[in-house]
């Protein structure tokens, strides 16, 4: 570009640019003497082979090395155990990769990392899988046979997942001895000791009350084991109960039959009806219907909503709910069972006029609110339940329905049993109307089948006592993202008790003794001490294998050995995994057991909560920081589903799928790089297009490393090279080092904030922009042509060495296999990159002046390159080296700041423009010779912005002088 004078005076900040021809150079003249790049670092390696070769070094070996070699401080990331059932899905992969990024960062920063992978091995899915493989009816198998089969299944699934986790490049000691499983003897004994401590503190009790019960699992469930579906369909019904005839005059109501209109979505619970509840503060009305049917009572505020049910009505009387309390009514199935006693209307605060009729059918065996209302009246020991362990009507239903109720016995309450109840209601004339409704309903999260509320005898943990302490403990926890604090806090606030018993064979036993004559359970600290000593010596299985008399303490044997039996309940799997904090031990100077726990958002209802509750009950805190990630969806935002065919398997990403064209083997680092690019605290997207983009972005970073490795020479050459001091570096080198310093500070901040997308964005921008698009472009000619001993070349190599070292430290936590490859090529050793601490650049590289000056020159460069591109488009040149650039400097009384910069850096301009020459001229120096061709443009320095580092105020510099 030739910058030459015009006949007019130039303005102070306007520079005239020109491009003209230059002598054509022979591009092959010095090819034999050039220092061309040379490296063994592959451009496109086979990721499967390369990662397999590096896996042991960067995973198990480095974890074992740091455990022995690095002293404190220690960083503990506590692994929430995935369920040992089937191959890994993408949620598993995201979870483990995020944890590994955090661990590797802290290792590079000089901390010893403790990370013990674990597995949750009990529960129904594993039990069902084992039974399916046995191919036998579980009802015919003894408990020990089922347990042994489930144990083998769990071990097999753990080994399968262990191997897959290692292929993701997860740093840990993966041997059996250094991982944990909830089926390990030592783990189970720690769990039982936590349970014993809770018993001793009076937090565990047994009660017959309604619980969430899964007929498909045949077990009680905790709230955390439920999922709610909004499209569940129920057949709701309006039914009428008859107020006892002689109560009308007493209440001041009209004479004649009066009905109490009730609405329910669970017709099957009507066989266990024990009361009708009203709210004492609501107003109720007695209505005469145009049809001439019996009078009916409903809440006054529900009249309009019930118009379709009632038809035209006339209000005969209005009565307060408090006046209805205590009135009697005839049981709904009395026509089929005449000897049933009358029942009462009770007061209950949960009754509202928001739905239904304002009168609520109350079956305390099948509803938490109903049970609470009966308990407040001191009637909770009298509740009636007709439902068995498979969710079916038992023979006890005949007691309230009469002989006609035999058609219900053995029928599932959620399907055929409910329909037959409706038929009986028609028979007794109590059915008013059926409505099919779609509403929100709880399902068993394991079987994906609806649950019921029904009363059984279960073990509970009293959370009321520890809730305040749990909430206080959460106040000391850091949450990522911060909004997740409110979610976990709300879940804890809403819980009063935790049903911890399950009616399954495969699990940790609740070691309670049951006194047969009185049908009472005994569970206290002294009894547990005796039992746990036996189990510790002989193993957990001995609870099922050993004789009862051995578990009965001597003080109880005087009542007779035959008077006792062992309990058959097992613990909730959330109690199993929730006590995992106990394996971490006490921290020095107190404090939470773990520095970080990281799991999916569903664990706010699960593991995060169960850890908190069991730890607080044991007077400790489980974690200092909770990190939550979202789900992995397909690239269109849909949930991954086998039925939809949109599932992306982590192992197919790593090793390839059946069709290499559509499912290429990207290797673990591409998957890890993708995980580092997403805002993981939200739901994330993954599919073929997203993976291809991640692979391309990582390839560009790899190419940057390859360029550096090819130009800085081998270890021997670098050992004899004298590095260039900062004071002797050119503007470009100081600018790149400033950009590298800023990159490192951004990366450190991103890692500390657990914002890995911030790290990857800054790294990619630096590699693609500062390096590939600028520094590599302007420095490669000097690298190829300058002497090895020249200051210019040594300055570039000095910078490139540091760039590679710092970039490798930044990328290593995210893409460890690539970092190991680079480190291996750089050091020519097989020592892991993670043995070298990440040493940060000194603040002297924070060079705001170099940054400001270079940014000005880059604005000029953009204009020059545009002119060069125009001449290239017109086929005047093929390469920018075939052109000369001249810059006509404005004639001013005093040179501007920009002019001084150009004058100082004149020798650097041709390098910056990648031209054959670049010179500064004034009007008086303009020659008269006409070039063969020339391109002329006017360049005005625009306003630029600069941040004042002292006050951080934004100041505007609108003229450069």
TrEMBL record:
Its main location: mitochondrion. Signal peptide: none annotated. PROSITE patterns: AA_TRNA_LIGASE_I. It catalyses: tRNA(Ile) + L-isoleucine + ATP = L-isoleucyl-tRNA(Ile) + AMP + diphosphate. Residues 733-886 form the Methionyl/Valyl/Leucyl/Isoleucyl-tRNA synthetase anticodon-binding domain. GO terms for biological process: isoleucyl-tRNA aminoacylation; mitochondrial translation. It comes from the Eukaryota. GO terms for cellular component: mitochondrion. Gene3D superfamilies: 1.10.730.20, HUPs, Valyl/Leucyl/Isoleucyl-tRNA synthetase, editing domain. The keyword Nucleus does not apply. It is found in: Mitochondrion. Pfam families: Anticodon_1, tRNA-synt_1. Residues 62-683 form the Aminoacyl-tRNA synthetase class Ia domain. The keyword Ligase applies. Keywords: Aminoacyl-tRNA synthetase, ATP-binding, Ligase, Nucleotide-binding, Protein biosynthesis. Its EC number is 6.1.1.5. GO terms for molecular function: aminoacyl-tRNA deacylase activity; ATP binding; isoleucine-tRNA ligase activity; tRNA binding. InterPro entries: aa-tRNA-synth_I_CS, aa-tRNA-synth_Ia, Anticodon_Ile_BEm, Ile-tRNA-ligase, Ile-tRNA_ligase, M/V/L/I-tRNA-synth_anticd-bd, Rossmann-like_a/b/a_fold, tRNAsynth_Ia_anticodon-bd. NCBIfam families: ileS. Belongs to the class-I aminoacyl-tRNA synthetase family. This is Isoleucine--tRNA ligase, mitochondrial. It comes from Mycena belliarum.
């Amino acid at each position: 570009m030739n910058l030459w004078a015009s006949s007019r005076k130039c303005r102070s900040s306007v520079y005239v640019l020109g491009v003209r021809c230059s002598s054509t150079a022979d591009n092959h003249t010095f090819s034999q003497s050039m220092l061309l790049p040379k490296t063994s670092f592959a451009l496109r390696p086979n990721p499967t082979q390369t990662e397999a070769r590096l896996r042991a070094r960067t995973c198990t070996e480095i974890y074992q090395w740091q455990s022995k070699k690095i002293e404190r401080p220690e960083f503990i990331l506590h692994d929430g155990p995935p369920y040992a059932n089937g191959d890994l899905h993408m949620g598993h992969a995201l979870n483990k990769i995020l944890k590994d990024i955090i661990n590797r960062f802290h290792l590079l920063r000089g901390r010893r990392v403790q990370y013990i992978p674990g597995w949750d091995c009990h529960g129904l899915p594993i039990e069902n899988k084992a039974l399916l493989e046995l191919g036998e009816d579980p009802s015919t198998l003894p408990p020990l046979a089922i347990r042994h089969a489930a144990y083998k299944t769990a071990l097999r699934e753990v080994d399968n997942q262990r191997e897959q986790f290692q292929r993701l490049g997860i740093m840990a000691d993966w041997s059996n001895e250094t991982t944990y499983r909830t089926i390990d003897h030592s783990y189970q004994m720690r769990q039982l000791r936590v349970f014993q401590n809770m018993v001793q503190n009076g937090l565990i009790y047994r009660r017959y009350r309604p619980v969430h019960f899964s007929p498909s699992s045949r077990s009680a469930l905790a709230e955390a084991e439920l999922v709610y579906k909004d499209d569940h369909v129920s057949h709701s019904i309006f039914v009428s109960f008859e107020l006892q005839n002689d109560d009308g005059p007493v209440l001041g109501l009209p004479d004649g039959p009066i009905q109490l209109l009730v609405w329910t979505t669970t017709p099957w619970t009507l066989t266990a009806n024990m009361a009708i509840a009203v709210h004492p503060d609501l107003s109720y009305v007695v209505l005469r219907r145009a049809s001439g049917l019996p009078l009916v009572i409903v809440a006054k505020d529900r009249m309009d909503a019930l118009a379709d049910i009632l038809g035209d009505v006339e209000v005969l009387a209005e009565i307060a709910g408090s006046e209805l309390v205590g009135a009697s009514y005839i049981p709904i199935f009395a026509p089929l069972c005449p000897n049933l006693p009358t029942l009462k209307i009770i007061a209950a605060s949960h009754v509202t006029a928001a739905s239904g009729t304002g009168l609520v059918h109350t079956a305390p065996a099948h509803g938490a609110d109903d049970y609470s209302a009966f308990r407040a009246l001191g009637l909770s020991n009298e509740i009636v339940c007709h439902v068995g362990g498979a969710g079916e009507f038992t023979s006890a239903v005949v007691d309230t329905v009469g002989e006609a109720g035999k058609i219900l016995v053995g029928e599932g309450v959620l399907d055929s049993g409910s329909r037959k109840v409706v038929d009986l209601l028609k028979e007794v004339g109590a059915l008013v109307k059926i409505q099919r409704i779609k509403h929100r309903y709880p399902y068993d999260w394991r079987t994906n089948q609806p649950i019921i509320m029904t009363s059984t005898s279960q073990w509970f943990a009293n959370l009321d006592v520890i809730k305040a302490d749990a909430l206080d403990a959460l106040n000391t926890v850091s949450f990522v993202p911060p909004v997740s604090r409110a979610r976990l806090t709300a879940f804890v606030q809403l819980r009063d008790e935790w049903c911890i018993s399950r009616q399954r064979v495969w699990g940790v036993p609740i070691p309670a003794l049951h006194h047969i004559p009185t049908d009472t359970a005994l569970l206290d600290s002294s009894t547990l001490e005796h039992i746990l000593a036996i189990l510790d010596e002989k193993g957990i299985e001995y609870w099922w294998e050993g004789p009862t008399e051995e578990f009965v303490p001597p003080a109880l044997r005087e009542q007779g050995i035959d008077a006792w039996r062992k309990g058959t309940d097992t613990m909730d799997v959330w109690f199993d995994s929730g006590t995992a904090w106990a394996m971490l031990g006490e921290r020095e100077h107190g404090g939470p057991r773990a520095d970080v726990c990281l799991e999916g958002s569903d664990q706010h209802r699960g593991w995060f909560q169960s850890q908190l509750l069991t730890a607080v009950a044991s007077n400790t805190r489980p974690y200092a920081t909770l990190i939550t990630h979202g789900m992995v969806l397909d690239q269109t935002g849909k949930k991954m589903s086998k039925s939809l065919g949109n599932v992306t398997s982590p192992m197919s990403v790593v090793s390839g799928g059946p069709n290499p064209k559509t499912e290429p083997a990207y290797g673990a680092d591409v998957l890890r790089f993708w995980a580092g690019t997403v805002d993981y605290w939200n739901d994330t997207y993954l599919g073929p297009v997203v993976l291809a983009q991640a692979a391309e972005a990582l390839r560009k970073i790899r190419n940057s490393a390859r360029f550096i490795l090819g130009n800085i020479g081998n270890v021997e050459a670098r050992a004899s090279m004298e590095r260039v001091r900062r004071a002797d570096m050119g503007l470009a080198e100081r600018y790149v080092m400033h950009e590298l310093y800023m990159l490192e500070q951004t990366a450190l901040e991103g890692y500390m904030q657990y914002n890995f997308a911030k790290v990857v964005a800054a790294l990619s921008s630096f590699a693609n922009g500062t390096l590939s698009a600028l520094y590599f472009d302007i420095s490669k000619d000097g690298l190829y042509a300058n002497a090895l001993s020249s200051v210019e070349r040594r300055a570039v190599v000095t910078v490139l060495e540091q760039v590679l070292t710092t970039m490798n430290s930044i990328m290593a936590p995210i893409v460890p296999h690539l970092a190991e490859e680079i480190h291996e090529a750089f050091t020519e050793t097989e020592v892991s990159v993670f043995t070298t601490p990440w040493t940060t650049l000194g603040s002297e590289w924070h060079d705001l002046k170099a940054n400001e000056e270079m940014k000005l020159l880059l604005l000029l460069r953009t204009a020059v390159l545009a002119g060069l591109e125009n001449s290239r488009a017109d086929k005047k040149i093929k390469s920018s080296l075939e052109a000369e650039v001249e810059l006509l400097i404005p004639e001013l009384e005093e040179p501007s700041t920009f002019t001084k910069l150009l004058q100082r850096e004149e020798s650097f301009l041709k390098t910056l423009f990648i031209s054959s020459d670049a010179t500064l001229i004034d009007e008086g120096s303009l020659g008269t010779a006409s070039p063969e061709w020339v391109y002329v443009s006017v360049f005005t320095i625009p306003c630029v912005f600069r941040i004042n580092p002292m006050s951080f105020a934004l100041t505007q510099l609108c003229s450069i002088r």
